[in-house]
Design brief:
Elements lengths: L2 H6 L5 H20 L6 H15 L4 H12 L2 H6 L2 H6 L1 H6 L1 H25 L4 H7 L6 H11 L3 H25 L5 H23 L1 H25 L4
Helix pairs in contact: 2-3, 2-4, 8-12, 8-13, 10-11, 10-13, 11-12, 12-13
Pfam families: LrgB
Subcellular location: Membrane
Membrane topology: Multi-pass membrane protein
Length: about 230
Protein backbone atom coordinates (compact mmCIF):
# COMPACT_ATOMS: atom_id res chain seq x y z
CA UNK A 1 0.00 0.00 0.00
CA UNK A 2 1.45 3.39 -1.03
CA UNK A 3 1.74 6.35 1.34
CA UNK A 4 -1.19 8.05 -0.43
CA UNK A 5 -3.36 4.96 -0.04
CA UNK A 6 -2.37 4.75 3.62
CA UNK A 7 -3.51 8.33 4.07
CA UNK A 8 -6.85 7.57 2.41
CA UNK A 9 -7.39 4.64 4.75
CA UNK A 10 -6.43 6.54 7.89
CA UNK A 11 -9.84 7.06 9.51
CA UNK A 12 -8.64 9.86 11.76
CA UNK A 13 -7.80 12.28 8.95
CA UNK A 14 -9.26 11.07 5.70
CA UNK A 15 -12.98 11.67 6.22
CA UNK A 16 -12.50 15.17 7.60
CA UNK A 17 -10.00 16.23 4.93
CA UNK A 18 -12.15 14.91 2.09
CA UNK A 19 -15.33 16.52 3.43
CA UNK A 20 -13.75 19.93 3.97
CA UNK A 21 -11.85 19.84 0.67
CA UNK A 22 -14.89 19.00 -1.44
CA UNK A 23 -16.98 21.60 0.37
CA UNK A 24 -14.25 24.17 -0.24
CA UNK A 25 -14.36 23.37 -3.95
CA UNK A 26 -18.11 23.88 -3.84
CA UNK A 27 -17.67 27.27 -2.20
CA UNK A 28 -15.19 28.34 -4.87
CA UNK A 29 -17.52 27.27 -7.67
CA UNK A 30 -20.47 29.06 -6.06
CA UNK A 31 -18.42 32.25 -5.69
CA UNK A 32 -17.19 32.07 -9.27
CA UNK A 33 -20.42 31.24 -11.11
CA UNK A 34 -22.94 32.69 -8.59
CA UNK A 35 -25.62 30.19 -9.56
CA UNK A 36 -27.98 28.56 -7.10
CA UNK A 37 -27.32 25.20 -8.76
CA UNK A 38 -23.72 25.34 -7.55
CA UNK A 39 -24.71 24.66 -3.97
CA UNK A 40 -21.53 23.88 -1.96
CA UNK A 41 -23.12 21.00 -0.07
CA UNK A 42 -24.57 19.46 -3.23
CA UNK A 43 -21.21 19.69 -4.99
CA UNK A 44 -19.46 18.26 -1.93
CA UNK A 45 -21.81 15.26 -1.89
CA UNK A 46 -21.24 14.46 -5.57
CA UNK A 47 -17.47 14.92 -5.36
CA UNK A 48 -17.20 12.80 -2.22
CA UNK A 49 -19.22 9.96 -3.77
CA UNK A 50 -17.14 10.13 -6.96
CA UNK A 51 -13.90 10.07 -4.97
CA UNK A 52 -14.93 7.04 -2.91
CA UNK A 53 -16.04 5.16 -6.02
CA UNK A 54 -12.92 5.95 -8.06
CA UNK A 55 -10.49 4.99 -5.30
CA UNK A 56 -12.66 2.09 -4.09
CA UNK A 57 -12.86 3.31 -0.53
CA UNK A 58 -15.76 1.96 1.49
CA UNK A 59 -18.12 4.26 3.33
CA UNK A 60 -17.18 2.88 6.74
CA UNK A 61 -13.57 3.99 6.30
CA UNK A 62 -14.67 7.45 5.21
CA UNK A 63 -17.23 7.83 8.00
CA UNK A 64 -14.73 6.92 10.73
CA UNK A 65 -13.25 10.37 10.29
CA UNK A 66 -16.17 12.30 8.79
CA UNK A 67 -18.48 11.50 11.71
CA UNK A 68 -16.58 13.97 13.89
CA UNK A 69 -17.91 16.79 11.75
CA UNK A 70 -21.43 15.65 12.62
CA UNK A 71 -20.76 16.51 16.24
CA UNK A 72 -20.85 20.17 15.20
CA UNK A 73 -24.46 19.93 14.00
CA UNK A 74 -26.06 20.62 17.37
CA UNK A 75 -23.85 23.55 18.47
CA UNK A 76 -24.08 25.13 15.01
CA UNK A 77 -27.87 24.93 15.22
CA UNK A 78 -27.80 26.59 18.64
CA UNK A 79 -25.65 29.41 17.24
CA UNK A 80 -28.53 30.35 14.95
CA UNK A 81 -30.10 31.95 18.03
CA UNK A 82 -27.72 34.91 17.65
CA UNK A 83 -29.44 36.57 14.64
CA UNK A 84 -32.79 35.85 16.29
CA UNK A 85 -31.71 37.72 19.42
CA UNK A 86 -30.65 40.68 17.28
CA UNK A 87 -34.15 40.82 15.73
CA UNK A 88 -36.10 40.09 18.92
CA UNK A 89 -38.16 43.30 18.78
CA UNK A 90 -39.30 42.46 15.27
CA UNK A 91 -40.27 38.99 16.47
CA UNK A 92 -42.47 40.39 19.23
CA UNK A 93 -44.12 42.76 16.78
CA UNK A 94 -45.00 39.92 14.37
CA UNK A 95 -45.49 37.16 16.95
CA UNK A 96 -48.97 36.05 15.80
CA UNK A 97 -48.05 35.90 12.12
CA UNK A 98 -44.85 34.02 12.92
CA UNK A 99 -46.61 31.37 15.01
CA UNK A 100 -49.37 30.86 12.42
CA UNK A 101 -46.82 30.62 9.63
CA UNK A 102 -44.65 28.01 11.35
CA UNK A 103 -47.60 25.90 12.53
CA UNK A 104 -49.08 25.98 9.02
CA UNK A 105 -45.77 24.92 7.53
CA UNK A 106 -45.34 21.98 9.91
CA UNK A 107 -48.91 20.75 9.37
CA UNK A 108 -48.51 21.07 5.59
CA UNK A 109 -45.28 19.07 5.65
CA UNK A 110 -46.66 16.24 7.79
CA UNK A 111 -49.94 16.09 5.85
CA UNK A 112 -48.10 16.05 2.54
CA UNK A 113 -46.03 13.04 3.64
CA UNK A 114 -49.20 11.30 4.85
CA UNK A 115 -50.91 11.78 1.47
CA UNK A 116 -47.85 10.58 -0.43
CA UNK A 117 -47.65 7.53 1.83
CA UNK A 118 -51.24 6.68 0.98
CA UNK A 119 -50.64 7.28 -2.72
CA UNK A 120 -47.56 5.04 -2.88
CA UNK A 121 -48.87 2.53 -0.31
CA UNK A 122 -45.90 2.84 2.03
CA UNK A 123 -45.58 0.68 5.09
CA UNK A 124 -45.35 2.24 8.56
CA UNK A 125 -41.54 2.26 8.77
CA UNK A 126 -41.10 3.96 5.39
CA UNK A 127 -43.82 6.46 6.24
CA UNK A 128 -42.36 7.60 9.58
CA UNK A 129 -38.91 7.77 8.00
CA UNK A 130 -40.08 10.69 5.84
CA UNK A 131 -42.04 12.64 8.47
CA UNK A 132 -39.08 14.74 9.74
CA UNK A 133 -37.84 15.68 6.25
CA UNK A 134 -38.09 19.43 6.87
CA UNK A 135 -36.31 19.68 10.23
CA UNK A 136 -32.63 19.79 11.03
CA UNK A 137 -30.71 16.50 11.09
CA UNK A 138 -29.86 16.75 14.80
CA UNK A 139 -33.57 16.61 15.69
CA UNK A 140 -34.73 14.43 12.80
CA UNK A 141 -32.46 11.52 13.72
CA UNK A 142 -33.88 11.40 17.25
CA UNK A 143 -37.45 11.51 15.94
CA UNK A 144 -36.93 8.61 13.52
CA UNK A 145 -35.11 6.50 16.07
CA UNK A 146 -38.05 6.93 18.45
CA UNK A 147 -40.55 6.02 15.71
CA UNK A 148 -38.41 3.08 14.53
CA UNK A 149 -37.84 4.31 11.00
CA UNK A 150 -34.76 4.09 8.78
CA UNK A 151 -32.21 6.63 10.03
CA UNK A 152 -29.86 6.64 6.97
CA UNK A 153 -32.81 7.28 4.66
CA UNK A 154 -34.06 10.08 6.90
CA UNK A 155 -30.65 11.78 6.85
CA UNK A 156 -30.60 11.55 3.06
CA UNK A 157 -34.11 12.97 2.72
CA UNK A 158 -33.34 15.82 5.14
CA UNK A 159 -30.21 16.76 3.18
CA UNK A 160 -32.07 16.62 -0.14
CA UNK A 161 -34.87 18.78 1.26
CA UNK A 162 -32.40 21.35 2.58
CA UNK A 163 -30.35 21.49 -0.61
CA UNK A 164 -33.46 21.82 -2.76
CA UNK A 165 -34.77 24.58 -0.49
CA UNK A 166 -31.46 26.41 -0.70
CA UNK A 167 -31.42 26.20 -4.49
CA UNK A 168 -35.11 26.89 -5.17
CA UNK A 169 -35.92 29.41 -2.41
CA UNK A 170 -35.46 32.61 -4.40
CA UNK A 171 -37.31 31.22 -7.43
CA UNK A 172 -40.28 30.10 -5.32
CA UNK A 173 -40.44 33.44 -3.51
CA UNK A 174 -40.51 35.30 -6.83
CA UNK A 175 -43.06 32.90 -8.29
CA UNK A 176 -45.51 33.46 -5.43
CA UNK A 177 -44.57 37.16 -5.10
CA UNK A 178 -43.54 36.89 -1.47
CA UNK A 179 -41.71 40.12 -0.64
CA UNK A 180 -42.16 40.52 3.12
CA UNK A 181 -38.82 39.65 4.85
CA UNK A 182 -40.52 37.97 7.83
CA UNK A 183 -42.65 35.79 5.54
CA UNK A 184 -39.59 34.85 3.48
CA UNK A 185 -37.66 33.73 6.55
CA UNK A 186 -40.55 31.73 7.99
CA UNK A 187 -41.23 29.98 4.68
CA UNK A 188 -37.59 29.04 4.09
CA UNK A 189 -36.76 27.95 7.63
CA UNK A 190 -39.90 25.90 8.15
CA UNK A 191 -39.55 24.03 4.86
CA UNK A 192 -35.79 23.53 4.52
CA UNK A 193 -34.16 23.84 7.97
CA UNK A 194 -30.50 24.93 8.35
CA UNK A 195 -29.51 24.64 4.69
CA UNK A 196 -32.42 26.84 3.71
CA UNK A 197 -31.49 29.24 6.51
CA UNK A 198 -28.07 29.69 4.91
CA UNK A 199 -29.90 31.07 1.87
CA UNK A 200 -32.21 33.16 4.06
CA UNK A 201 -29.16 34.79 5.66
CA UNK A 202 -27.92 35.71 2.19
CA UNK A 203 -31.25 37.46 1.54
CA UNK A 204 -31.06 39.63 4.67
CA UNK A 205 -30.73 39.85 8.46
CA UNK A 206 -34.48 39.68 9.06
CA UNK A 207 -34.93 36.70 6.77
CA UNK A 208 -32.05 34.91 8.50
CA UNK A 209 -33.38 35.61 11.99
CA UNK A 210 -36.91 34.45 11.20
CA UNK A 211 -35.60 31.36 9.45
CA UNK A 212 -33.44 30.55 12.48
CA UNK A 213 -36.49 30.80 14.72
CA UNK A 214 -38.44 28.56 12.36
CA UNK A 215 -35.82 25.81 12.60
CA UNK A 216 -36.19 25.59 16.37
CA UNK A 217 -39.97 25.96 16.62
CA UNK A 218 -40.78 23.74 13.63
CA UNK A 219 -38.37 21.14 14.98
CA UNK A 220 -40.15 21.03 18.34
CA UNK A 221 -43.59 20.99 16.70
CA UNK A 222 -42.52 18.20 14.36
CA UNK A 223 -41.35 16.08 17.29
CA UNK A 224 -44.89 16.23 18.66
CA UNK A 225 -46.62 16.20 15.29
CA UNK A 226 -44.66 13.23 13.96
CA UNK A 227 -45.72 11.17 16.99
CA UNK A 228 -49.36 12.00 16.23
CA UNK A 229 -49.17 11.57 12.44
CA UNK A 230 -47.28 8.28 12.84
CA UNK A 231 -50.49 6.75 14.19
CA UNK A 232 -52.33 7.36 10.90
CA UNK A 233 -50.57 4.52 9.04
Amino acid sequence: MTSIQQFFHNPVYFGVVLSLSTYGIGMLLKRKFKLALFNPLLISIFLTIAFLVVFRIDYKTYNEGARYISYLLTPSTVCLAVPLYEQFDLLKKNCRAVIIGIVSGVISSLTGIFLLALLFKMDHSAYVTLLPKSITTAIGIGVVQELEGYVPVTVTVIVITGVFGNIAAETVLRLFRITEPVAKGIAIGTSSHALGTAKAMELGDVEGAMSSLSIVVSGLLTVVGAAVWSCFI
